[in-house]
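Predict the structure of Adenine DNA glycosylase.
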Amino acid sequence: MQAVENFAPRVLAWFDEFGRKNLPWQQEKTPYRVWISEIMLQQTQVTTVIPYYHKFMASFPTVEALAAAEQDEVLAHWSGLGYYARARNMHKAAKMLVDELDSEFPQSVEGVCELPGIGRSTASAILSISRGVQAAILDGNVKRVLARFHAVPTWPGEKKTENAMWALAEHYMPAQRCGDYTQAMMDLGATLCTRSKPQCLICPLEKDCLGRRTEDPTQFPIRKPKKAAKPERSIQLLVLVNEDNQVFMEKRPQSGIWGGLWSLPELASEESVVLHVEQRFQTHIHNIAPLSAFRHTFSHYHLDIEPSQVRIGSIDAVFEAGKYQWFSLHEAFDLGLPAPVRTILTDLENTSC
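Done. Here is the predicted structure for Adenine DNA glycosylase.
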């Protein structure tokens, strides 16, 4: 892959005229604020992130505030963004920064990478944008720009190809205006060099883009070899409602899907709701009402969910304090909830109105 001249100057000139400069995390570019935005933006669109970012920063304006917060509070602010390990790692990293590093971000990419949940590209973005460090990034947008520009013929997920693209990213990284260049490359991929329908005619790199010279620039980056169809799983989720109209919630283990979030009692799709409730909770069932079934898709499988509202009397079984609790619907919505659980409770609230 042959590098070309004047790559960075063209990108920066485009950014000066067309780049995004009014995003909330661009207004006060501290390492903390940039870090939060970069973690939120992983696998999530900018328009989705903005309201979450405003709410998060209002509650946790400093790394000290984030470190002092309970994990439940952090996850509640993350509810709906998905990939909850990001939030758990961010909370751990905040504690590490406060307890071990005097609340100061490390000066080097290698040092930032030692924090939980931060890889090379994210660390480089934090330091280049907030401190002007000459550190190249290779996120999804930048990969797409470079893969198209050079018509990279192999999948970027292959180690050899990834290393070659890192070399290109570092070569093009200018010594000056590092933060602007990082933002410019992300903007270029997000707004012009998009996955479908790239706007090649107004791209500052169009003249030398090898992907543009092919009949279909969208063939780059080369797609990952197809895997077999996603497996499917089925579960039942129970909305146990007591005589005070409270919902019984249980906190999931830290590892696994929905780790650390509050969820609803779960059972296999073929299990009997009556037997499960009576045996596990030692209570009397007043009424069972099936709710609308739906599918929730994870990165690696489909989950078919069959929810039921089960009205019960008092629970005689003994459960571990802090792991199982009754909440009103109003209280439940303030918890860190998996998106499907929030959907179920929202539907229940709407049908109860």
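The mean pLDDT is 94.
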